[in-house]
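Regression check, alpha-L-arabinofuranose case 336:
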Amino acid sequence: MKKWTKVVAAVVAGTMLLALAGCGGAKDSKPAAEKKADKKIVIGFSQVGAESEWRTANTESIKAAAKEAGIELKFSDGQQKQENQVKAIRSFIQQKVDVIAFSPVVETGWDTVLQEAKDAHIPVILTDRAIKLGKGNPEDYYVTFLGSDFIVEGQNAAKWLLEFTKKTDPVNIVELQGTVGSAPAIDRKKGFEEVMKDHPNYKIIKSQTGDFTRAKGKEVMESFLKSAKAEGQKIDVLYAHNDDMAIGAIQAIEEAGLKPGKDIIIVSVDGVKGAFEAMIAGKLNCTVECSPLLGPQLMDAVKNILAGKTLEKRILTKEGVFPADVAAKELPNRKY
Ligand code: AHR
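Current build output:
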């Protein structure tokens, strides 16, 4: 082949290649939604840990819903440490998942990693717990936030207590708080105190974290009982930010020779089966519901985001209040 013929052949081949590439380009210019529909959706989920019955039910709900929706779930257990969650989110960014979802163990300290997710154009969904940023509006860093209103839960616990006890003389309350710096610990305290401020005879005499676990709930209740005894104070009420801590505290109260649910009125939050069993046994007086069954809503949100739909910034969970007298009837209906 002469030199110029070779040049023409090369130009023709190049043009054909460009044309083919052009076809590929046209394919690439499909809307993101259609592109996503072609392949399996992958989400990265960073969970707080496995600190409570609630958390276990939440994890199961998310795993089951992902399976049901045909979504690939990359799941990471943060073991209640923020650094583990940050690492997990960074690895999801590296793996270029379609959506990142996480339940933040504490409210603050997410600024950098959320900026990294934003820079990588990966949508983020918050589940269960809220965040606060050092600077800027947190809402700019996530598409939607699914979960409960913890302030309302705290208010509901206080309202139930007032209605149940109807006291005008002093009522001494001890409070088992959730994980320090976490949204449910901050908001459940706030909601409870907001209602109680109009009832100054109801006083929180001791308040400490039990980190949302049974073991810590028991340990802290033991120390509350000991110090109250030493100070000559009577504990009338226990307000626990979750059922697991209340269940741990029930053990401590029994070991101290007192009757939980009678000598000390107990109200807690979550509505797990263990709490219903404790109510049926007469050891717990009320649980304020906080639903962990967020899996189906999360998968719907993921699909909607990838289909280009606009989501509500806040998707609230519906919940009730269950006093001991309805426990036996309700237990068979409980899903967690
Ligand atoms: O964020 C929800 C809270 O976290 C639940 O009330 C508690 O049980 C869990 O550990």
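Comparison notes: The chain has a mean pLDDT of 91. The chain has two domains: 40-147+293-318, 150-290. No diff flagged against the previous build.
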